[in-house]
């Protein structure tokens, strides 16, 4: 699958970033059985963290792009955890999407679509996943979006 995913990334004009190092006392991924749990990932564009709050100056479109960037970072972490290949990915099981938003902002699911649509574009039916999309008053380092994941991998 890795060749197909690499080709699809290239077709979409996308590239995986360097997997980010943890910023606190945790590890980026934990493999439990055939489920790879990916810690929350933040959106980076051109080496800079995408910050801000929905409902207070950040547009849904900009936040969808931030969610897509989180999705790319998730895949970078998965690739690193699996020895440099996405070939063992069998399914994206779940995404947990946290959106830095004001109390009256209610379009968190639209923001989360930025990552969800990326997974389906890359993995097809295996990219269709369960999902949570919640608003929070603040995220680490002021990030606009943070996403964690559970990914099924082949043994």
TrEMBL record:
<feature type="domain" description="Endoribonuclease L-PSP/chorismate mutase-like">
    <location>
        <begin position="9"/>
        <end position="143"/>
    </location>
</feature>
<protein>
    <submittedName>
        <fullName>RidA family protein</fullName>
    </submittedName>
</protein>
<dbReference type="InterPro" id="IPR035959">
    <property type="entry name" value="RutC-like_sf"/>
</dbReference>
<dbReference type="Pfam" id="PF14588">
    <property type="entry name" value="YjgF_endoribonc"/>
</dbReference>
<dbReference type="InterPro" id="IPR013813">
    <property type="entry name" value="Endoribo_LPSP/chorism_mut-like"/>
</dbReference>
